[in-house]
Protein backbone atom coordinates (compact mmCIF):
# COMPACT_ATOMS: atom_id res chain seq x y z
CA UNK A 1 0.00 0.00 0.00
CA UNK A 2 2.77 2.40 0.91
CA UNK A 3 4.56 1.88 -2.44
CA UNK A 4 1.39 2.47 -4.36
CA UNK A 5 0.91 5.83 -2.63
CA UNK A 6 4.45 6.94 -3.33
CA UNK A 7 4.09 6.06 -7.01
CA UNK A 8 0.80 7.90 -7.30
CA UNK A 9 1.79 11.10 -5.44
CA UNK A 10 4.48 12.16 -7.98
CA UNK A 11 2.00 11.67 -10.83
CA UNK A 12 -0.49 13.98 -9.09
CA UNK A 13 2.30 16.51 -8.66
CA UNK A 14 2.72 16.73 -12.46
CA UNK A 15 -0.98 17.16 -13.24
CA UNK A 16 -0.98 20.98 -12.74
CA UNK A 17 1.95 21.27 -15.15
CA UNK A 18 0.03 19.43 -17.85
CA UNK A 19 -2.57 22.23 -17.91
CA UNK A 20 -0.01 24.79 -19.10
CA UNK A 21 0.30 23.11 -22.47
CA UNK A 22 -3.43 23.37 -23.14
CA UNK A 23 -3.94 27.14 -22.96
CA UNK A 24 -5.07 29.24 -25.90
CA UNK A 25 -2.29 30.64 -28.09
CA UNK A 26 -1.32 34.26 -27.54
CA UNK A 27 -3.33 36.67 -29.70
CA UNK A 28 -1.49 38.08 -32.73
CA UNK A 29 0.34 41.36 -32.27
CA UNK A 30 -1.74 44.27 -33.65
CA UNK A 31 -0.26 46.10 -36.62
CA UNK A 32 -1.03 49.48 -38.15
CA UNK A 33 -0.01 52.28 -40.50
CA UNK A 34 -1.35 55.64 -41.58
CA UNK A 35 -0.67 58.55 -43.90
CA UNK A 36 -2.37 61.90 -43.46
CA UNK A 37 -2.22 65.41 -44.88
CA UNK A 38 -2.85 68.00 -42.18
CA UNK A 39 -4.09 71.14 -43.91
CA UNK A 40 -4.41 74.80 -43.03
CA UNK A 41 -7.64 75.78 -44.82
CA UNK A 42 -7.52 79.44 -43.74
CA UNK A 43 -7.19 82.00 -40.99
CA UNK A 44 -8.80 79.82 -38.28
CA UNK A 45 -5.98 77.22 -38.33
CA UNK A 46 -2.87 77.86 -36.23
CA UNK A 47 -0.78 74.97 -37.64
CA UNK A 48 0.98 74.94 -41.00
CA UNK A 49 0.08 72.21 -43.42
CA UNK A 50 2.20 69.06 -43.21
CA UNK A 51 2.12 65.37 -44.01
CA UNK A 52 2.66 62.57 -41.50
CA UNK A 53 3.20 58.86 -42.03
CA UNK A 54 3.75 55.90 -39.78
CA UNK A 55 4.50 52.74 -41.70
CA UNK A 56 3.69 52.86 -45.42
CA UNK A 57 0.08 52.96 -46.57
CA UNK A 58 -1.72 54.93 -49.28
CA UNK A 59 -5.01 54.52 -51.09
CA UNK A 60 -3.22 52.33 -53.66
CA UNK A 61 -0.73 50.33 -51.58
CA UNK A 62 -0.23 48.86 -48.14
CA UNK A 63 3.53 48.32 -48.18
CA UNK A 64 4.48 48.25 -44.49
CA UNK A 65 2.29 48.03 -41.40
CA UNK A 66 4.13 48.23 -38.08
CA UNK A 67 3.62 45.73 -35.29
CA UNK A 68 3.04 47.04 -31.79
CA UNK A 69 6.52 47.73 -30.41
CA UNK A 70 8.22 47.85 -33.83
CA UNK A 71 10.18 51.04 -34.62
CA UNK A 72 8.97 52.61 -31.35
CA UNK A 73 5.31 52.35 -32.42
CA UNK A 74 2.36 51.60 -30.17
CA UNK A 75 -0.58 49.96 -31.94
CA UNK A 76 -3.88 48.98 -30.34
CA UNK A 77 -6.97 48.13 -32.35
CA UNK A 78 -10.30 46.34 -32.42
CA UNK A 79 -12.27 45.62 -35.59
CA UNK A 80 -15.40 43.68 -34.72
CA UNK A 81 -18.67 42.69 -36.32
CA UNK A 82 -19.90 40.97 -39.45
CA UNK A 83 -21.62 42.72 -42.33
CA UNK A 84 -21.12 46.02 -40.50
CA UNK A 85 -18.00 46.59 -38.44
CA UNK A 86 -17.03 48.69 -35.44
CA UNK A 87 -13.47 50.07 -35.49
CA UNK A 88 -11.54 51.48 -32.53
CA UNK A 89 -7.82 51.99 -33.14
CA UNK A 90 -4.86 53.92 -31.84
CA UNK A 91 -1.40 54.21 -33.39
CA UNK A 92 1.43 56.27 -31.96
CA UNK A 93 5.05 56.99 -32.84
CA UNK A 94 6.54 57.22 -29.35
CA UNK A 95 9.72 58.88 -30.62
CA UNK A 96 7.87 61.86 -32.15
CA UNK A 97 4.62 61.73 -30.10
CA UNK A 98 2.64 61.63 -33.37
CA UNK A 99 -0.65 59.89 -32.63
CA UNK A 100 -3.89 59.03 -34.39
CA UNK A 101 -7.04 57.62 -32.77
CA UNK A 102 -9.89 56.35 -34.91
CA UNK A 103 -13.47 55.45 -33.96
CA UNK A 104 -16.00 54.23 -36.51
CA UNK A 105 -19.27 52.95 -35.07
CA UNK A 106 -20.37 51.22 -38.26
CA UNK A 107 -18.65 50.65 -41.61
CA UNK A 108 -19.69 48.13 -44.23
CA UNK A 109 -17.53 46.75 -47.04
CA UNK A 110 -19.80 48.69 -49.41
CA UNK A 111 -18.76 52.17 -48.13
CA UNK A 112 -17.94 54.49 -51.06
CA UNK A 113 -16.91 58.13 -51.35
CA UNK A 114 -20.49 58.95 -52.34
CA UNK A 115 -21.93 56.88 -49.43
CA UNK A 116 -19.17 56.90 -46.77
CA UNK A 117 -19.18 55.70 -43.20
CA UNK A 118 -18.69 58.42 -40.60
CA UNK A 119 -16.55 58.43 -37.50
CA UNK A 120 -14.03 60.40 -35.53
CA UNK A 121 -10.29 60.97 -35.56
CA UNK A 122 -8.01 62.59 -33.03
CA UNK A 123 -4.60 63.57 -34.42
CA UNK A 124 -1.51 65.14 -32.88
CA UNK A 125 2.05 65.63 -34.09
CA UNK A 126 5.18 67.67 -33.42
CA UNK A 127 3.73 70.39 -35.67
CA UNK A 128 0.57 70.57 -33.50
CA UNK A 129 2.85 70.88 -30.45
CA UNK A 130 1.46 67.53 -29.30
CA UNK A 131 -2.00 69.05 -28.94
CA UNK A 132 -4.75 66.83 -30.36
CA UNK A 133 -6.98 68.07 -33.14
CA UNK A 134 -10.30 66.23 -32.93
CA UNK A 135 -12.93 65.85 -35.62
CA UNK A 136 -16.08 67.90 -35.15
CA UNK A 137 -19.17 65.96 -34.00
CA UNK A 138 -21.31 68.14 -36.31
CA UNK A 139 -18.97 67.42 -39.26
CA UNK A 140 -17.60 63.88 -38.73
CA UNK A 141 -14.76 62.30 -40.69
CA UNK A 142 -15.70 60.24 -43.74
CA UNK A 143 -14.29 56.75 -44.41
CA UNK A 144 -14.63 54.75 -47.63
CA UNK A 145 -13.05 52.13 -49.88
CA UNK A 146 -11.72 52.95 -53.33
CA UNK A 147 -13.45 50.98 -56.10
CA UNK A 148 -11.45 48.17 -57.69
CA UNK A 149 -8.84 48.30 -54.91
CA UNK A 150 -7.70 45.76 -52.35
CA UNK A 151 -9.05 47.96 -49.55
CA UNK A 152 -11.71 46.54 -47.29
CA UNK A 153 -12.85 45.59 -43.81
CA UNK A 154 -13.35 42.26 -42.09
CA UNK A 155 -13.17 40.99 -38.52
CA UNK A 156 -9.76 41.99 -37.18
CA UNK A 157 -8.64 44.16 -40.12
CA UNK A 158 -9.33 47.31 -42.13
CA UNK A 159 -7.67 49.28 -44.93
CA UNK A 160 -9.55 52.47 -45.77
CA UNK A 161 -9.18 56.06 -46.98
CA UNK A 162 -10.58 59.03 -45.09
CA UNK A 163 -10.87 62.78 -44.80
CA UNK A 164 -11.99 65.15 -42.08
CA UNK A 165 -13.06 68.58 -43.29
CA UNK A 166 -13.05 69.91 -39.72
CA UNK A 167 -10.65 69.06 -36.90
CA UNK A 168 -10.56 71.32 -33.85
CA UNK A 169 -8.26 72.27 -31.03
CA UNK A 170 -9.99 74.86 -28.87
CA UNK A 171 -10.91 77.71 -31.27
CA UNK A 172 -8.54 76.57 -34.04
CA UNK A 173 -10.09 74.76 -37.00
CA UNK A 174 -7.97 72.78 -39.46
CA UNK A 175 -8.52 69.88 -41.86
CA UNK A 176 -7.24 66.35 -42.51
CA UNK A 177 -7.17 65.87 -46.28
CA UNK A 178 -7.25 62.52 -48.03
CA UNK A 179 -5.42 60.04 -45.82
CA UNK A 180 -5.22 56.27 -45.58
CA UNK A 181 -4.97 53.85 -42.71
CA UNK A 182 -4.55 50.12 -42.32
CA UNK A 183 -4.80 47.89 -39.26
CA UNK A 184 -4.70 44.12 -38.97
CA UNK A 185 -4.32 41.44 -36.31
CA UNK A 186 -6.82 43.47 -34.30
CA UNK A 187 -9.00 42.07 -31.56
CA UNK A 188 -12.59 41.29 -32.46
Folded structure, characterized:
9% of the residues lie in helices and 51% in strands. It is mainly beta and 188 residues long. It is globular and about 55 Å long.
Separation of the first and last Cα atoms: 54 Å
**Count of separate DSSP helical elements:** 1
Q: What is the overall silhouette?
A: globular
* Overall helicity: under 10%
Number of E strands = 14
In this structure, how is the largest beta sheet organized?
12 strands, antiparallel
Beta content comes to over 45%
Contiguous uncertain segments of 5+ residues = 1-9, 14-18
Order of helix and strand elements from N to C terminus:
HEEEEEEEEEEEEEE
Classification by helices and strands: mainly beta
**pLDDT averaged over residues:** 89
What is the CA-based Rg, rounded? 22 Å
Concise overview:
By secondary structure, this protein is mainly beta. The chain has one helix and 14 strands, in the order H-E-E-E-E-E-E-E-E-E-E-E-E-E-E.
Task: Record the SSE blueprint.
Elements: H1 2-18, E1 31-39, E2 50-54, E3 56-57, E4 62-64, E5 66-67, E6 73-82, E7 84-93, E8 98-107, E9 117-124, E10 133-135, E11 141-144, E12 152-154, E13 157-169, E14 172-184
Antiparallel strand pairs: 1-2, 1-5, 1-14, 3-4, 6-7, 7-8, 8-9, 9-10, 9-11, 10-13, 11-13, 12-13, 13-14
Amino acid sequence: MRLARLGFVPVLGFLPLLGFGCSDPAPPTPRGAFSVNFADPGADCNVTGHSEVLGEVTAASRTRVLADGEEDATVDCTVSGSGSFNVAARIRNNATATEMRIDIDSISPAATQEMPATGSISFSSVETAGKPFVSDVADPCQFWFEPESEQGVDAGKIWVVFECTTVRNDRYICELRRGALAFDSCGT
